[in-house]
Amino acid sequence: MKAPPGSPLKQRLEELFRFERSGMRLGLEGIERLLSRGGRPDRAFPSVLVAGTNGKGSTAAHLAAIFRAAGLRVGLYTSPHLIRFNERIRVDGQAIDDDRLESLLGEWWPRFEEERPSFFEAATALCFDFFARSGIDLAVVEVGLGGRLDATNVLSPRVSVITTVSSDHTEILGDSLARIAAEKAGIVKPGGTLVCGVRKAAARATIEAIAAERGARALWLGRDLRYRTRSVTAEGTEIWIRGHSFEGAVRSPLPGAHQARNAALAVLAAEAALADRPGREVAAAVSRGIPATRWPARAQILDGSPPVLLDAAHNVEGAIALRETIQALYPGRPVAFVVALSRDKARASYLTELGRVAGRFYLTEFAGERATPAPLLLASAPAAHIACEAVPAAAEALAAARRWASGAGGVVVVTGSFFLLAETMPALRTDVPDEL
Predict the structure, then answer these.
(1) How many domains does the chain have?
(2) Which residues pair with 239 in a beta bridge?
(3) Peptide bond into 4 cis (omega under 30)
(4) DSSP line for 240-309
């Protein structure tokens, strides 16, 4: 764990990533001790906390864009990153630069050696300190895993948001929707405000009960704000929204009906967080902020022949949303999927959903022990009528998919794991911008 004084950024980050390989640590005691050693930077700024199985990052990105359009200086903390650690920590859309990150790592390293935090605890402490020093007006913070025991839950948010609840990470969060919902509802604070987009009855009932028990005001998408998807195109998603402050049509640059839901939920959360402002100001921030949202690798289309779509759909719910987006964007066109999944994912169900629109699967894997081996993915292939091939090298799988799609007049979709996207994006000559 030791990194000598004056270690360059690359070496310090390599040491930090080793914390991740040592495993996660659920519970708030460790992060509380760590932040106390740093003077409790988490208490220096107000926040909005975003939890959920899917849609957390996209909802947080829409929300941060609305707050920036309202004239606020906004911090955004998300995970995981795609290419560089810096992506996780942004102020007004700008990722933390290497010099500031190296300086913070050097300052916090003695505390890390004493407390031996998990990777996520260490990253969270760095982020909160950077936000405190940056003089932000408001932080939008994505929960890492679950909610109740996640390191981000040390915050006392102005608004708590829960996007969706479905079966993922069941070995940690529980084997029923009610148990998973209870973990996510752990971010609801006594007397606080909850904004919720959950639809499934068992999960919704659990969250409603916890909010009532804690005396929290609960605002529900579909009741306190209504929306409908008007169109999904390669240019984005047009949404009609009727909320307390905003009513009208707005376009998110992110394609997909699920992004309409994420954007609408962000509007409801923004209305709650900005309740002390005149309604016309909030409406203006929504109308400017939603179209300004940028969020890479969410149905991100790279033009070419064939076009390539990148999407970070990593579980069954994400696969359903991706399938529906492909049906809207490329009806009737052959689709070549390049897929790699982590070992803990429901691979058969995931591939079955994508199989409804697939012309061919190139099943691959990413570097590291968390990857499902390509032959094991092949054994989970959905149906004999879909051509499937195990290609362990991701670069070779991508090249083969592009050749097939080019000849078939189709499209390539790269999806399944953030780690796969990180490996393939350089080959596609695309990157995550430092400024969003």
Answers:
(1) 2
(2) 229, 250
(3) no
(4) EEE-SS-EEEEEESS-SHHHHHHHHHHHHHHHHHTTTS-HHHHHHHHHHHGGG---TTSSEEE-SSS-EE
Same structural domain, 193 and 91: yes
Six token digits for residue 318? 């994400």
Domain end point (choices 237, 271, 292): 292
**Given 292, 317, 345, which residue is the final one in a domain?**
292
Cβ neighbours of residue 253 closer than 8 Å, sequence gap 6 or more: 235, 236, 291, 293, 294
> How confident is the model at residue 321, as a pLDDT?
97
CA separation for the pair 30, 320 (Å, rounded): 37
Q: Which domain holds residue 344?
A: 300-424
Going by their DSSP bridges, the two strands 138-142 and 74-77 should be labelled as parallel
Where do we find the tokens 């997909």? Answer: 256
Distance between CA atoms of residues 146 and 26, nearest Å? 10
State the residue for tokens 């495993």: 23
- Give the DSSP H or E segment for 338: strand 335-339
Dig out the tokens for 278 from the structure.
């005149």
Look at residues 206, 199, 245, 190 and name the one whose alpha carbon lies nearest to residue 223.
199
Contact call for residues 70 and 269 (beta carbons, < 8 A): no
pTM over 0.90? The answer is: yes
User: What is the rounded CA–CA span in Å between residue 181 and residue 210?
Assistant: 10
State the Rg of the chain over Cα: 21
- Averaged in consecutive runs of 10 residues, what is the pLDDT profile of the chain (436 residues)? 63 84 74 97 98 96 98 98 97 97 96 93 97 98 93 98 79 73 96 97 95 98 98 98 98 98 98 98 98 98 97 96 98 97 90 95 94 94 83 98 98 97 95 95
Residues 266 and 315 in one domain: no
Phi then psi dihedrals of residue 294, to 5 deg = -130, 135
93 and 20 in one domain?
yes
271-302 burial code (b ≥16 CB/10 A, e <16): bbbbeeeeeeebbebbbebbebbebbbbbbbe
Output phi, psi for 154, to 5 deg. -70, -20
Taking each helix axis from N to C end, the angle separating 201-213 and 177-184, rounded to the nearest 10 degrees, works out to 40
